[in-house]
Predict the 3D structure of the following.
Amino acid sequence: MATTTRLVELGPSGAVPASTLEVPEQWRALPVPDGAVGALSDRRSLSRAIETNLVLTATTLPEGATLTSWQASVRAERLAALPDLQILDERATTSPEGEELWCSSSVMTDPQGVTILTRRRSRIAGDTGLTLTLTTLPLTDAAHDEMLDRIVGTWKVLAAPGKELNRAHR
């Protein structure tokens, strides 16, 4: 059965360029958490047990930072802060538009004792590091893997007025 989708825009916020995603029609915007640019929820349409959500965050990067060096720093911080974090996959790849992306997935136990899976995609736009994080249950992820891949694969960053997006950052 085909799922009807719609294009949503996250951001812009200050110097952070807007991003777009195609999500299933029933997904809705959430209140934006501190430090985030935008957030969406499936409203428990994939599993009654937990909301699957997407959160876009942005951080200003130090001069000279590369995608690889930034993600090495993020990995070290996450491992130090989350003692049971298990990295399942972590790699550099290229978007269909030729932009470098960092892809990772991990599992951990949240404060309520629930095992959650996160998929993270990161890229650099100007001097800003952007990360799109999808959080769900491992069984929900497995059951809806192709759809979740499609959603994350539709993430586009729009150039801020007067600025060019960086395309290569190794």
Summary: The domain at 5-155 is CATH 3.40.1000.10 (Protein Transport Mog1p; Chain A). The two ends are 40 Å apart (CA to CA). The CA atoms of residues 4 and 82 lie 36 Å apart. The chain is about 20% helix and 40% strand.
